[in-house]
Design goal:
302 residues; 9 helices
Amino acid sequence: MSTAYGFREYGGPETQQFFDVAVPFPGPGQLQVAVHVAGVNPADWKVRAGTRKDTVPVTLPAVLGREVAGVVTAVGPRVADFAVGDAVFGATATGYGGYADHTMLNASSTAHKPGSVSFADAATLPVAAGTAYDAMSTLNLPAGSRLLVIGAGGGVGVAALQLAAARGVTVLGVASRSKRDVVESLGAQWVESGAGLATRISEPVDAVFDLVGGDALADAARVARAPAAIVSVGDPLAARDLGGSGVERRRTTAVFAELAALVASGVLDPRVTHRFPLAQAGEALALVESGHAAGKVVIEVG
């Protein structure tokens, strides 16, 4: 049995609790992993709240968390590239969560962790950095372009700022005043979030990457040169209505390995700012749900 933290019904934080779950031997193409670190993301509380029912099916009680780093403890049939004892990171398999002693990964969504990359940094790559990486690939901006990132101070945002800068893109990062230092430390121009966003942007931008949705996305569309260059994970449907799109995620070994290489080479710093033990998983998720966390929050399990 594995100690896990999750929710027994859809709703608010009051539905969250610890419980024991069975982690069976991995099936074909799967890896059983002893979790060292789990990443915490806004998607976690949104799944718990029931807003992702159409895209993230769960069986209740459900374990929270979608990204982990750890060590392989068992290998299922038809897995050729991983062995027991390997240090890995990846996206959890359907029906499994990351806030737990053990979880299951699909080998196709798992990569080897380089020795120079910490378990904490590796655990942030499948969801947060991966989303930013796929967004930058979708936009494919040439050097010299201007990119507006809405929600630049969180885990996805800080990765997007760095990945865009590595392409030679000039980045404007929209965030609260409390996250100004984080945005500017990554070489971006800080733009204060809040009503009237468009009035604080002096020149049109070539693209928008939105992590917030709502009025901020609508305001950003007013300063975008081309509606097609608006991509959103905050509200993909609204982005499509504006002429843009959502972000097509590629949770593959190749993408994750590239992200780990970027961390190892110093191009990407996941900016892990808060670490909680598994016993405080609820506090970790509450911090992310509050919207006040700058950088990335992780849970250290083992």
